[in-house]
Fold this protein.
Amino acid sequence: GDSVTQMEGPVTLSEEAFLTINCTYTATGYPSLFWYVQYPGEGLQLLLKATKADDKGSNKGFEATYRKETTSFHLEKGSVQVSDSAVYFCALFGAQKLVFGQGTRLTINP
Amino acid sequence: EAGVAQSPRYKIIEKRQSVAFWCNPISGHATLYWYQQILGQGPKLLIQFQNNGVVDDSQLPKDRFSAERLKGVDSTLKIQPAKLEDSAVYLCASSLDGGQVYGYTFGSGTRLTVV
Protein backbone atom coordinates (compact mmCIF):
# COMPACT_ATOMS: atom_id res chain seq x y z
CA GLY A 1 0.00 0.00 0.00
CA ASP A 2 0.90 3.68 -0.13
CA SER A 3 3.36 4.87 2.49
CA VAL A 4 5.52 7.82 3.49
CA THR A 5 8.88 7.69 5.26
CA GLN A 6 10.38 10.73 6.95
CA MET A 7 13.77 11.26 8.48
CA GLU A 8 13.75 10.47 12.15
CA GLY A 9 13.79 13.26 14.64
CA PRO A 10 14.08 15.13 16.73
CA VAL A 11 16.03 17.73 14.79
CA THR A 12 17.62 20.60 16.70
CA LEU A 13 19.14 23.59 14.92
CA SER A 14 20.31 27.07 15.75
CA GLU A 15 18.46 30.09 14.45
CA GLU A 16 19.39 31.03 10.85
CA ALA A 17 20.63 27.51 10.07
CA PHE A 18 19.68 25.67 6.87
CA LEU A 19 16.97 23.05 7.24
CA THR A 20 16.34 19.85 5.33
CA ILE A 21 13.78 17.24 6.37
CA ASN A 22 13.85 14.20 4.12
CA CYS A 23 10.68 12.54 2.85
CA THR A 24 10.33 9.59 0.48
CA TYR A 25 7.19 7.82 -0.59
CA THR A 26 5.88 4.60 -2.07
CA ALA A 27 2.73 4.84 -4.14
CA THR A 28 0.96 3.58 -7.19
CA GLY A 29 0.89 6.20 -9.89
CA TYR A 30 1.68 9.84 -9.24
CA PRO A 31 0.13 11.06 -6.02
CA SER A 32 -0.18 14.64 -4.85
CA LEU A 33 2.32 15.43 -2.09
CA PHE A 34 1.93 17.68 0.93
CA TRP A 35 3.80 19.04 3.93
CA TYR A 36 1.76 19.80 7.05
CA VAL A 37 2.98 21.54 10.20
CA GLN A 38 1.66 21.04 13.73
CA TYR A 39 2.40 23.65 16.37
CA PRO A 40 2.06 22.67 20.05
CA GLY A 41 -1.54 22.09 21.06
CA GLU A 42 -2.88 22.73 17.57
CA GLY A 43 -4.16 20.73 14.63
CA LEU A 44 -2.30 20.19 11.38
CA GLN A 45 -1.92 23.12 9.01
CA LEU A 46 -1.14 22.77 5.34
CA LEU A 47 2.32 24.22 4.69
CA LEU A 48 2.82 23.51 0.99
CA LYS A 49 1.91 21.08 -1.75
CA ALA A 50 2.81 19.78 -5.21
CA THR A 51 0.47 17.91 -7.49
CA LYS A 52 2.77 16.66 -10.25
CA ALA A 53 6.37 15.76 -10.93
CA ASP A 54 8.91 18.62 -10.88
CA ASP A 55 6.41 20.97 -9.22
CA LYS A 56 7.87 23.07 -6.43
CA GLY A 57 5.65 23.97 -3.50
CA SER A 58 6.60 26.97 -1.39
CA ASN A 59 5.25 28.91 1.58
CA LYS A 60 6.69 30.99 4.45
CA GLY A 61 10.24 30.45 3.15
CA PHE A 62 9.84 26.66 3.01
CA GLU A 63 10.21 24.79 -0.27
CA ALA A 64 9.85 21.22 -1.52
CA THR A 65 10.20 19.78 -5.02
CA TYR A 66 8.31 16.72 -6.26
CA ARG A 67 11.01 14.33 -7.54
CA LYS A 68 9.47 11.40 -9.37
CA GLU A 69 12.80 9.74 -10.17
CA THR A 70 13.78 9.52 -6.51
CA THR A 71 10.20 9.38 -5.12
CA SER A 72 11.08 12.20 -2.76
CA PHE A 73 9.64 15.48 -1.48
CA HIS A 74 12.26 16.92 0.86
CA LEU A 75 11.41 20.04 2.85
CA GLU A 76 13.97 22.87 2.92
CA LYS A 77 14.32 26.33 4.40
CA GLY A 78 17.33 28.56 4.02
CA SER A 79 17.24 30.29 7.40
CA VAL A 80 15.07 28.92 10.21
CA GLN A 81 13.57 30.93 13.04
CA VAL A 82 12.59 30.01 16.59
CA SER A 83 8.95 30.27 15.49
CA ASP A 84 9.50 27.36 13.07
CA SER A 85 9.72 24.96 16.01
CA ALA A 86 6.96 22.41 15.41
CA VAL A 87 6.30 18.90 14.14
CA TYR A 88 6.39 18.52 10.36
CA PHE A 89 4.46 15.80 8.51
CA CYS A 90 4.95 14.69 4.93
CA ALA A 91 1.85 13.21 3.30
CA LEU A 92 0.68 11.81 0.01
CA PHE A 93 -2.80 11.66 -1.47
CA GLY A 94 -3.34 8.12 -2.66
CA ALA A 95 -6.35 5.79 -2.88
CA GLN A 96 -8.63 8.75 -2.21
CA LYS A 97 -7.11 9.62 1.17
CA LEU A 98 -4.15 11.36 2.79
CA VAL A 99 -1.46 9.05 4.14
CA PHE A 100 1.00 10.62 6.60
CA GLY A 101 4.57 9.96 7.60
CA GLN A 102 5.46 9.63 11.25
CA GLY A 103 6.41 13.28 11.67
CA THR A 104 9.68 15.05 12.43
CA ARG A 105 9.96 17.25 15.51
CA LEU A 106 11.99 20.40 14.84
CA THR A 107 13.38 22.60 17.60
CA ILE A 108 15.14 25.88 16.81
CA ASN A 109 17.33 27.40 19.50
CA PRO A 110 17.99 31.15 19.61
CA GLU B 1 -14.11 31.34 6.62
CA ALA B 2 -14.58 29.51 9.88
CA GLY B 3 -12.37 26.49 10.38
CA VAL B 4 -13.16 22.95 11.42
CA ALA B 5 -14.59 23.02 14.95
CA GLN B 6 -14.05 20.18 17.41
CA SER B 7 -15.09 19.63 21.00
CA PRO B 8 -14.13 18.94 23.65
CA ARG B 9 -10.44 19.91 23.51
CA TYR B 10 -9.48 17.50 26.28
CA LYS B 11 -11.07 14.47 27.87
CA ILE B 12 -9.90 12.14 30.61
CA ILE B 13 -11.85 8.93 31.22
CA GLU B 14 -11.32 5.61 32.92
CA LYS B 15 -10.94 2.46 30.88
CA ARG B 16 -14.21 0.77 29.96
CA GLN B 17 -16.05 4.11 30.04
CA SER B 18 -17.57 5.64 26.92
CA VAL B 19 -16.72 8.96 25.27
CA ALA B 20 -17.96 10.99 22.30
CA PHE B 21 -16.30 13.64 20.18
CA TRP B 22 -18.02 16.21 17.99
CA CYS B 23 -16.92 17.84 14.75
CA ASN B 24 -18.38 20.61 12.62
CA PRO B 25 -16.63 20.87 9.24
CA ILE B 26 -16.16 23.90 7.04
CA SER B 27 -19.43 24.90 5.42
CA GLY B 28 -19.78 23.35 1.99
CA HIS B 29 -17.15 20.65 2.51
CA ALA B 30 -18.78 17.40 1.52
CA THR B 31 -16.02 15.10 2.72
CA LEU B 32 -15.24 14.62 6.41
CA TYR B 33 -12.51 12.54 8.02
CA TRP B 34 -11.63 11.30 11.49
CA TYR B 35 -7.98 10.58 12.20
CA GLN B 36 -6.32 9.09 15.27
CA GLN B 37 -2.90 10.48 16.19
CA ILE B 38 -1.02 8.49 18.82
CA LEU B 39 1.83 10.33 20.50
CA GLY B 40 4.95 10.27 18.34
CA GLN B 41 3.16 8.90 15.28
CA GLY B 42 1.54 10.32 12.18
CA PRO B 43 -2.25 10.59 11.94
CA LYS B 44 -4.06 7.42 10.90
CA LEU B 45 -7.40 7.55 9.08
CA LEU B 46 -10.26 5.98 11.02
CA ILE B 47 -13.24 6.84 8.83
CA GLN B 48 -14.14 8.95 5.81
CA PHE B 49 -17.60 10.31 4.99
CA GLN B 50 -18.85 11.69 1.72
CA ASN B 51 -21.92 13.74 2.68
CA ASN B 52 -23.62 11.35 5.14
CA GLY B 53 -22.36 8.12 3.59
CA VAL B 54 -19.29 6.15 4.70
CA VAL B 55 -16.57 5.92 2.03
CA ASP B 56 -13.84 4.15 4.01
CA ASP B 57 -13.96 2.71 7.51
CA SER B 58 -11.46 -0.07 6.99
CA GLN B 59 -9.22 1.11 9.87
CA LEU B 60 -12.04 1.74 12.35
CA PRO B 61 -12.11 -0.78 15.24
CA LYS B 62 -15.80 -1.44 14.84
CA ASP B 63 -16.14 -3.49 18.01
CA ARG B 64 -15.68 -0.32 20.07
CA PHE B 65 -15.65 2.69 17.73
CA SER B 66 -18.62 4.13 15.88
CA ALA B 67 -19.18 7.31 13.92
CA GLU B 68 -22.05 9.03 12.23
CA ARG B 69 -22.62 12.10 10.16
CA LEU B 70 -26.24 13.11 10.29
CA LYS B 71 -27.60 15.32 7.52
CA GLY B 72 -24.15 15.41 5.92
CA VAL B 73 -22.83 18.16 8.19
CA ASP B 74 -21.78 17.55 11.83
CA SER B 75 -20.21 14.30 12.87
CA THR B 76 -19.71 12.40 16.12
CA LEU B 77 -17.14 9.73 16.92
CA LYS B 78 -17.83 7.43 19.86
CA ILE B 79 -15.69 4.95 21.74
CA GLN B 80 -17.38 2.36 23.95
CA PRO B 81 -15.78 0.86 25.93
CA ALA B 82 -12.46 2.72 25.93
CA LYS B 83 -9.11 0.98 26.33
CA LEU B 84 -5.80 2.39 27.51
CA GLU B 85 -4.42 2.19 23.97
CA ASP B 86 -7.13 4.58 22.75
CA SER B 87 -5.25 7.46 24.39
CA ALA B 88 -4.50 9.76 21.46
CA VAL B 89 -5.49 12.98 19.74
CA TYR B 90 -8.57 12.58 17.56
CA LEU B 91 -8.48 14.91 14.60
CA CYS B 92 -11.39 15.85 12.39
CA ALA B 93 -10.77 17.22 8.91
CA SER B 94 -12.82 18.22 5.91
CA SER B 95 -12.14 18.86 2.25
CA LEU B 96 -13.82 20.63 -0.60
CA ASP B 97 -12.48 18.60 -3.51
CA GLY B 98 -11.77 15.25 -1.86
CA GLY B 99 -8.26 16.38 -0.97
CA GLN B 100 -6.23 15.63 -4.09
CA VAL B 101 -5.49 19.25 -4.98
CA TYR B 102 -6.13 21.27 -1.83
CA GLY B 103 -5.52 18.70 0.88
CA TYR B 104 -7.58 18.67 4.04
CA THR B 105 -8.37 21.35 6.64
CA PHE B 106 -7.92 20.02 10.16
CA GLY B 107 -9.51 20.99 13.45
CA SER B 108 -7.48 21.46 16.63
CA GLY B 109 -8.27 17.96 17.80
CA THR B 110 -9.51 16.32 20.98
CA ARG B 111 -6.85 14.91 23.28
CA LEU B 112 -8.17 11.76 24.96
CA THR B 113 -6.45 10.24 27.96
CA VAL B 114 -7.68 6.85 29.15
CA VAL B 115 -6.55 5.93 32.68
Remarks:
- Chain B has no helices and eleven strands.
- Chain B touches chain A through 26 residues (CB under 8 Å).
- The CA atoms of residues 16 and 82 of chain B lie 5 Å apart.
- The longest strand of chain B covers residues 88-95.
